[in-house]
Amino acid sequence: MATYKPVVVQAIPKLGERITQDTVYWRGYKTPVQIKEFGAVNKIDFSPVPPYNYAVTASSRIHIYGRYSQEPIKTFSRFKDAAYCATYRDDGNLLVAGSEEGSIRLFDISGRAPLRQFDGHTKAVHVVGFLSDKYRIFSGGDDYSSSLWDIPSATEIVSYSEHTDYVRCGCASKVNADVFITGSYDHTVKLFDARTKSSVMTIEHGQPVESVLLFPSGGLLVSAGGRYVKVWDVLKGGQLLVSLKNHHKTVTCLCLNSSGQRLLSGSLDRHVKIYSTTSYKVVHSFNYATSILSLALSPEDETIVVGMTNGVLNVKHRKPEEMKEKSQKKRQPAYRTYMKGRTYMPKQEDFCVSKPVKRVLRKYDKLLKSFQSSKALDAVLEPPIRLYTPEVTVAVMQELHRRGTLRSALAGRDEKQINLLLTFVARRVIEPRFTPVLVTVADMLTDIYQPVVGQSAIVDRQFLRLQEAIGKEIDYQEELLEVLGMMDTLFATFTKKNASYLEENRSNGLTETVETNMNN
């Protein structure tokens, strides 16, 4: 009796992952450290001076963490309700934060009690920050207003009430000490100059604005809202340069790396996308467990900190260069170890012993070997095989068809099994590598279960889906044939033109040659 030959699964070549310098760079971070906060993390801000501690705003507290500490080294908790947007000053000595009750508090990093309290907003203040002169603070609140405050006197300098919805984000210019920008849920981004009584520029984003970012040069502005990240040229009056739509859900935060050559965006779709600021294409992506609310990158790009809706703080540190060099210098076995005995040729008096190789059959192969066609088909319709390796399922169907037992394996099934089969066929029949086999399977299913059509709403729905999928594929094929016909016509025209052009050149060459000979 001949030995059983396992089912041959058609191997489809896969595209290899493209490894770029960005891929290598952004993968050079250690396994993340998870820190649990008391609530959703709405803001992360790194100190601009060494040792680059970072402030995390969550619930009614502000925690200061060291770069490698997993416990807060300092806590500010003088808030009756939620705290928002704790931001460092450029010298790293002061910290300002908004609150749910509408007040703004200024803290000294070395102390605990607030140095100043600014009252003027009637609702929650979600946006606060320092102007680049270090002596003024800008703010934006849910009362639709944006204000400018003087730190020494703790008084309001000017208030703007131009937005028509909540003001939820903002930033200050590092080039001009009088310029700051706010973004609102009224879909607009407004640029204010402290020397004027109204905004000097209004940009329409088109979605509720969740985050704004100004490039260090002050010439480019990035706004995020909805699924869009948009880049604007401020020097050209707010001209739109590029609109990026790489996220599937609302973009909540933006960040630049230390060189300004990479832009990072975090979203509720659990992804952080990294863009090149020259081409604005995605060069890398990070995936996280839950929706992302805040994101920050340390001044030397050594640490990435991400805050999520479930209150978890995800901290990634870059691997030291020394560790990379050591890992690369691991001693490998000598080359001769691998090549030992490879070139040995057996002599005439040698006795060669062949070691029998034990072949392990998979479950469906064992069932096929014992001629259990229906159970073999059931085995390859299990979720792990059906969803992740559909080529195995199709290969078993093809083998059953070759044996002539496919019809009997498909017959005699209940409503749940018919639904499963029809779902698989409707989903995969449009793939060219599976089409020849699955068209046969669909034909048999239609013949076998045609008498029961109308008895089950689920089965009827799946038959309609199958009909729709095949109808769409036929339409696509017809359109492709039309395009091919058009292309054939164009190619034929080009060929005729080239042929006539060559003939003309040849005839001209012959004429010139004859004339030259006659003259000679």
Structure characterization notes:
Pfam families: UTP15_C (PF09384), WD40 (PF00400). It comes from Lophotis ruficrista. WD repeats lie at residues 118-159, 244-285. There is one protein chain. This protein is an alpha+beta fold and 520 residues long. It has 2 domains: 24-317, 7 Propeller (Methylamine Dehydrogenase, Chain H); 363-473. 29% of the residues lie in helices and 31% in strands. It contains 11 helices and 28 strands. It has helices spanning 21-26, 321-328, 335-339, 363-369, 373-380, 383-388, 390-403, 406-410, 415-428, 435-449, 457-519, and strands spanning 33-36, 41-46, 54-58, 61-65, 74-76, 83-88, 94-99, 103-108, 114-119, 125-130, 136-141, 146-150, 155-160, 167-172, 179-184, 188-193, 199-204, 209-214, 220-225, 228-233, 239-244, 251-256, 262-267, 271-276, 282-287, 292-297, 303-308, 312-317. The strands form 7 sheets. The chain has a 4-stranded antiparallel sheet with strand order 1-28-27-26, with no helix packed on it. A 4-stranded antiparallel sheet has the order 2-3-4-5, with no helix packed on it. Helix 4 (363-369) runs antiparallel to helix 5 and helix 5 (373-380) runs antiparallel to helix 7 (390-403). The protein is elongated and about 95 Å long.
Task: Summarize the topology.
Layout: H1 21-26, E1 33-36, E2 41-46, E3 54-58, E4 61-65, E5 74-76, E6 83-88, E7 94-99, E8 103-108, E9 114-119, E10 125-130, E11 136-141, E12 146-150, E13 155-160, E14 167-172, E15 179-184, E16 188-193, E17 199-204, E18 209-214, E19 220-225, E20 228-233, E21 239-244, E22 251-256, E23 262-267, E24 271-276, E25 282-287, E26 292-297, E27 303-308, E28 312-317, H2 321-328, H3 335-339, H4 363-369, H5 373-380, H6 383-388, H7 390-403, H8 406-410, H9 415-428, H10 435-449, H11 457-519
Antiparallel strand pairs: 1-28, 2-3, 3-4, 4-5, 6-7, 7-8, 8-9, 10-11, 11-12, 12-13, 14-15, 15-16, 16-17, 18-19, 19-20, 20-21, 22-23, 23-24, 24-25, 26-27, 27-28
Helix pairs in contact: 4-5, 5-7, 9-11
